[in-house]
Amino acid sequence: MNKVLGALCLIHCQTIDSQRGICDGTKECPYRLKIHTKLQQTYLEISESGIIVDAMLSCNPARQNILVFMASVMGADFLAMQYNFLQYVIDGNWSKAAWEVEHSSWGRENNTLATYCSNVMKLGIWSLPSDLDALISTK
């Protein structure tokens, strides 16, 4: 949860406060409590969706973080409707799951973010994107 919280915090703060530079991802963030509360709500919503729970149980921690990240960005209800994607995750078919992320309606609207999420799904390795500015500009 700390990696997802840190990423959401960094993206949120650089999106909202890029001129003031409140959060650089290393110092204490004034929005952290708000984002932590949002993340707790996301976990609750995920726990109420059987298909997302099944997908979470099929993933390593990096891929779980991406599922939580995606649920917090697009909403758990919308993620739950991405049946093909979640079924590929459950089946461990990472290349098809990644393809679904990039080619979904959400992926087409959020191209850079979707590419990042699909890469983590493919590789199973979590890291903050090297070009965070490009990721933020898609919001």
Description of the molecule:
- This protein is an all-alpha fold and 139 residues long.
- It has ten helices and no strands.
- The protein has helices at 2-16, 32-47, 50-57, 61-74, 76-80, 83-91, 94-103, 105-109, 111-123, 132-136.
- The two termini are 22 Å apart.
- The model is unreliable at 14-22 and 131-139 (pLDDT under 50).
Give a short overview.
The chain has 139 residues and is mainly α. It has ten helices and no strands.
How are the secondary structure elements laid out?
Blueprint lengths: L1 H15 L15 H16 L2 H8 L3 H14 L1 H5 L2 H9 L2 H10 L1 H5 L1 H13 L8 H5 L3
Helix pairs in contact: 1-2, 3-6, 6-7, 7-9
The rounded Rg comes to 14 Å
| Portion in strands | under 5%
Distance between the termini: 22 Å
**Helix content percent band:** over 70%
Largest sheet: none
| Unreliable segments of 5+ consecutive residues | 14-22, 131-139
Mean pLDDT: 74
Q: What multimeric state do the chains show?
A: single chain
Shape: globular
Structural class: mainly alpha
Total helical elements: 10
Order of helices and strands: HHHHHHHHHH
